[in-house]
Automatic annotation (TrEMBL):
Residues 212-226 have a biased composition (Low complexity). The keyword Metal-binding applies. SUPFAM superfamilies: SET domain. One of its GO terms (biological process) is methylation. It is found in: Chromosome. Residues 1-27, 192-228 are annotated as: Disordered. GO terms for cellular component: chromosome. Keywords: Chromosome, Metal-binding, Methyltransferase, S-adenosyl-L-methionine, Transferase, Zinc. Its main location: nucleus. This is SET domain-containing protein.
Length: 320
């Protein structure tokens, strides 16, 4: 269940519906958590209030807003040298860039230094900078709003229009080993490392279940998604990008069987990322969506697709 907290300084009150709200208190003594509007995520409710996005079922766990990879070298200390890596790479990796070095047939997939364009760089040895690219995403509030939806919790809505193939963002979070015990989270994105097979990878898209009060949170660690155009090969070695505790706005993109975007594996300079790209024209004021994939909401699962598109996967399951 997706819990919420009001922005105004207050004391806690609980109404008959069980939703936690807050009563006004002395405005000269603001709650400590409200001092940084950019450290956390804030969304607009259906009645126009601004509230703090919190984790499932509790006000004590608040996902932090970051725009980077979170990397701990010790995470990979016990992992073997990946067979997909070129020889003589540093191992265990010392930085996220060491681990996510773009190698293989990715020379035509650099997206440059900035978002909100469809620019591509065809130079295999280009000097585009991941640091510069991350800076360009600090203005995401100018392009997107987080709002409460009717039945999917929090969603991402557009404030500007985009054209097909525009890059809208990228998936940030903590890098985990694929061998981690904590591989059943709601916001896991699978990312190949080293040289990949001829096809780009498929990635599980984060579940929208954290934003959905009426259903439990399914794990997405072993779910596949058609958000990318090709499947992950069994030959690929992967890591997990976990945005459950720390991530950027892309963690709130909900599913649709007729989506506006896809997650695609790209590079910025020599660093591999999973970006969000428009697959058709996107007008102002619509909810941004991605297809979580047939395996995630497929006919053999118990998960419910709530997108409402004609022929959506939950309807197919009920008819099967």
């Amino acid at each position: 269940m997706h819990s919420v907290a009001a922005t105004r300084t207050s004391r806690r009150k609980t109404n008959k519906s069980g939703v936690t709200k807050f009563a006004n208190t002395d405005p000269k003594k603001p709650n400590r958590i409200l001092r940084s509007l950019y450290k956390y995520f804030w969304y607009t409710t259906s009645d126009g209030d601004t509230r703090l996005a919190t984790s499932i079922g509790t006000l004590d766990r608040v996902p932090q807003q970051i725009n980077d990879y979170v990397f701990h070298p010790k995470t990979f200390a016990d992992d073997e040298y990946p067979s997909t890596f070129p020889p003589n790479m540093p191992w265990p990796p010392k930085t996220a860039q060491d681990l996510l070095l773009a190698v293989g047939s990715e020379g035509e997939e650099c997206i440059g230094n900035s978002c909100y364009t469809d620019t591509q760089c065809y130079d295999h040895s280009c000097t585009h900078s991941f640091s510069t690219f991350k800076q360009s995403k600090k203005t995401w509030h100018d392009h997107f709003d987080l709002r409460e939806t009717k039945d999917k919790g929090i969603g991402v809505f557009t404030k500007t229009a985009f054209k097909t193939d525009d890059v809208l963002g990228w998936y940030a979070g903590e890098i985990l080993s694929s061998n981690t015990r904590n591989n059943q989270g709601d916001y896991l994105m699978e990312m190949p490392i080293g040289a990949t097979a001829s096809s780009p990878p498929e990635s599980p898209c984060p579940s929208d279940s954290e934003h959905t009060p009426s259903s439990p949170s399914p794990s997405s660690s072993n779910a596949s998604s058609s958000a990318l155009t090709h499947d992950t090969s069994a030959m690929d070695m992967t890591v997990l990008i976990d945005a459950s505790r720390r991530g950027n706005w892309t963690r709130f993109i909900n599913h649709s069987c007729k989506p506006y975007t896809e997650f695609r594996m790209r590079r910025v300079g020599d660093v591999r990322i999973m970006d969000v790209e428009a697959v058709r024209r996107i007008p102002v004021g619509v909810e941004l969506t991605v297809d979580y994939g047939g395996s995630y909401y497929g006919v053999d699962t118990r998960r419910r697709c709530r997108c409402g598109v004609r022929g959506f996967v939950s309807a197919k399951r009920r008819c099967s």
